[in-house]
Design goal:
alpha/beta, 4-stranded antiparallel sheet, 58% helix, elongated
Length: 809
């Protein structure tokens, strides 16, 4: 029996399946219908329709495996139809016809290029099922998850499209009801961005106030999260955590940000969770965050490179959902290019995006793949082609835009992407050209635009750091402008410190002002751009420096005036001293002249007085001889003497007045000289004290010598007493023995006066002579004297031996 050929109409798209996946889906539904309804007439019609549409689908299948799979499905239902109706049908697939392949709409593109997968694209995210499952198991027991890996390993896509979407779908108990704020990227102001995410929507003033509280008290983050009245657990996602080290230069803000995250996951209830992504080359920097380090060490999950099967799934699964076909060998070539390549996933997604854009209806051909030069060079060739397609003035603008979006490290080892406000690109250049070039960069997927709450808050950044590493032209631009970029970074760091201090501190010094003014006037400033606050900082610093200079000059001027005043004062003092010296010398001379004059006048007065006395004596003699004549003559002479005496007294009074004037002048001169003499007197006093000390030392030395001589004399006497063994009584204490009577010594009959302390000696008895000293003499009322003698060397016997002394009056 010949098989029945079912009619096929390829011009009607409804008569064929758009893809092998659609054919398989219809196959599954038909199997379900067979189990539920059985072999009915309706079932037979459905089988015939599937076979007819399946045969037509062969014109769309070019892969050998796909055609074999489709043919197997058709053969299965042909056998089933034969068992039911004993009818055979032709199941041969139509020949592949590229012209009949369907056109795929542009919006159904399953690839994201250099962008990371987001929650909105989780349906085309494949290849990470094993790692996502492992992270869900970790989150079931832990509240902090740190996803680390190399740049381009897919950390952000793994968290946003893989992990976060499954948590919202209820992968963990109750996770579908948790709070999920927008993912946070720290940037240069992590606290501001954190407050902005948690307060959406919120005013700028409120955001700044909460950021200040977070800086002062990191536990304030717990209070901000607890503002939700439902007390639901919160899942905070921090993407690109390394920016707290690469973009944030404020150490205190960095520490407060990390401390806040650590405090959030330590709250007993509700169960808040923090998920962050971090480049592996920044793991050592986490040690700077003391309180956060201990929690971070036990929360790491390493993102490993995709294996070959996982890479194939990441390529083919999204393509099959969109109906995209790859010519045989293209996928294998992609795998060979990407496996083992650093930052391979961004390169793979970018290459797939470019292959999608160059597809032929629903197919990616070898020709398209060769035009891109493979997966490794696709990004480079595409970026060069885009740049070459611009006119020269647009090329200059594109270079300026791209250079403003990158930030090289100071050690020249790393280059990071830096987000900037979109409106900042329009300063210093034609706005229409900047907008045109920026739109082209965004359309080429080289730059990513992030919309803000207002148009002024929109930000742009390089689509991925893989562009910086894999586009040699951009690398060359960076090398040419690296020093200028670092200068801009250094100046902007100083500017941010100035802004943080509310524009009241952190001003530039003279060297920094000159450096900033030079850079602002250079072509690099126009090329790289800068924030408008930087010129304001330079102007304010210049004004402050000029004010300090004016104040310094005023102080210097005052110091000069003071020095001149002191010099003038010293000069006047010297002149006054010299004048006083001259006056003193003149006064001394005048005083000497007056003294001599006074002496002469006094001598004359004395001579006149003597002459008057002589005349008076002559008058008295004349009175006895010639009274009248002599008396008259004497009175006349006396009058002359009195006149001379009055003149002498007048001269004396004048001399006293002059003397008093000289004394007043002398006091002035002496007051001037007293200060000079005071130092001399101090010196003389010191010398006198030194001489006194010297005399005292000499006196003490003499007394010491005298005492030494007395000791030596006593020792010699004691030695003599001990040396005579004939009289044992000499060794005893002789002070209590009676002394001789004074009559025996005949003290009253001595020619030499007897004074206290005088040595006394004389015969006493037959035993010998007594030698002593007189220490006291007492006389009673009767006039009797009593002498008290102190024993000296004792009695000496006639033989020269010591004898017993006796006492007496």
């Amino acid at each position: 029996m010949r098989p029945v050929a079912l009619p096929v109409c390829l011009d009607d798209p409804a008569l064929c399946f758009p893809s092998l996946a659609s054919l398989r889906a219809a196959h599954g539904e038909l199997l379900k219908l067979q189990r539920e309804a059985g072999d009915t007439s309706e079932f037979q019609e459905r089988v015939e329709t599937l076979i007819r549409r399946g045969r037509a689908t062969g014109a769309l299948l070019d892969g050998t495996e796909d055609r074999w799979a489709a043919q197997g499905i058709l053969d299965y239902w042909s056998t089933a139809l034969f068992r039911v109706a004993c009818q055979t049908v032709d199941t041969t697939l139509e020949q592949f016809d590229p012209g009949l392949a369907p056109e795929l709409p542009e919006e159904s593109c399953p690839y994201v290029g250099l962008d990371a997968f987001q929650e909105s694209t989780f349906g085309v995210f494949f290849g990470r099922e094993r790692l996502v499952k492992a992270m869900l198991q970790r989150l079931a027991d832990e509240r902090l998850l740190a996803v680390t890996g190399d740049s381009g390993s897919g950390k952000s896509s793994l968290v946003l499209a893989g992990l976060l979407s499954r948590l919202k779908a209820g992968a963990l108990p109750g996770s579908e009801t948790w709070r999920y704020p927008s993912p946070l990227v720290p940037g240069s102001e992590p606290l501001m961005n954190l407050a902005r995410v948690l307060l959406q929507p919120g005013s700028a003033g409120e955001t700044a106030a909460h950021a200040a509280r977070l800086l002062a008290n990191p536990d304030h983050l717990v209070e901000m999260v607890a503002d939700d009245q439902s007390s639901r657990p919160c899942v905070l996602v921090v993407d690109q955590f390394e920016e707290v080290f690469s973009l944030c230069d404020a150490v205190d803000a960095r520490q407060a940000f990390a401390d806040g995250l650590a405090a959030l996951v330590k709250v007993p209830a509700p169960r808040h969770t923090v998920i962050l992504t971090l480049r592996s080359d920044y793991e050592s920097q986490v040690a700077k965050l003391e309180t956060f380090m201990s929690a971070f060490e036990g929360a790491q999950v390493r993102v490993t490179p995709l294996s070959a099967p996982e890479l194939r799934a990441a390529i083919e699964e999204p393509a099959s959902l969109a109906g995209l076909k790859f010519e045989e060998g293209v996928v294998d070539a992609l795998l060979r290019d990407i496996l083992g390549e650093p930052a391979g996933l961004p390169l793979l997604q970018f290459t797939l995006l470019k292959l999608w854009q160059s597809r032929e209806r629903n197919r990616v051909t070898w020709e398209s793949y060769r035009r891109l030069s493979g997966g490794r060079l696709a990004l480079r060739r595409s970026a060069d082609a885009f740049y070459d397609s611009l006119i020269p003035e647009e090329q200059v603008t594109a270079r300026r835009i791209l250079l403003r979006m990158v930030r090289p490290s100071e050690d020249r080892l790393e280059v990071t992407s830096s987000r900037i406000r979109r409106e900042a690109l329009f300063r210093g250049e034609a706005s229409d050209r900047v907008a045109r070039v920026l739109d082209k960069l965004i359309a080429a997927r080289l730059v990513r635009l992030t919309e803000g709450e207002t148009p002024a808050d929109a930000q742009v950044e390089v689509a991925h750091e893989a562009l910086v590493r894999n586009w040699p032209r951009l690398v060359d631009w960076l090398e040419q402008e690296r020093s200028e970029i670092n200068t801009r970074r250094r100046l902007e760091t100083l500017m941010e410190e100035w802004l943080r201090l509310d524009r009241k501190g952190g001003l530039l010094d003279e060297v920094q002002i000159a450096d900033a003014e030079r850079w602002l006037a250079s072509s690099s400033a126009a090329l790289l751009g800068y924030r408008p606050e930087l010129p304001a900082l330079v102007a304010t610093s210049r004004e402050a420096m000029e004010e300090r200079r004016r104040q310094k000059e005023a102080v210097h001027h005052r110091e000069l005036e003071q020095a001149q005043f002191l010099a003038e004062t010293e000069r006047r003092r010297a002149e006054e001293k010299a004048r006083s010296t001259r006056i003193f010398r003149g006064l001394a001379t005048a005083l000497l002249v007056l003294f001599v004059s006074t002496a002469v006048i006094g001598w004359r007065a004395y001579s006149a007085k003597q002459e008057a006395q002589n005349l008076q004596m002559q008058v008295e003699r004349l009175k006895r001889h010639d009274a009248y004549i002599r008396i008259a003559t004497a009175e006349q002479l006396k009058k002359k003497a009195e006149d001379a005496l009055a003149e002498a007294r007048k001269q004396r009074n004048l001399t006293i007045i002059a003397w008093r004037s000289l004394n007043s002048q002398k006091y002035v001169v002496e007051e001037l000289l007293r200060k000079e003499k005071s130092q001399r007197l101090r010196t003389e006093t010191a010398l006198a004290n030194e001489k006194t000390q010297k005399r005292r030392a000499e006196s003490a030395l003499a007394e010491a010598r005298k005492a030494k001589e007395q000791v030596n004399e006593a020792r010699s006497d004691s030695a003599q007493l001990r040396a005579d063994p004939l009289d044992p009584f000499a060794q005893r204490n002789l002070s209590f023995l009676p002394s001789p009577r004074p009559e025996a010594l005949q003290l009253d009959q001595r020619n030499r006066p007897v004074r206290l302390g005088s040595s006394v000696g004389g015969p006493y008895s037959e035993r010998g002579a007594y030698v002593g000293s007189l220490c006291c003499v007492v006389q009673d009322r009767a006039g009797q004297r009593y002498y008290l003698l102190s024993p000296g060397r004792g009695l000496l016997s006639p033989h020269g031996r010591p004898a017993q002394p006796t006492g007496g009056r």
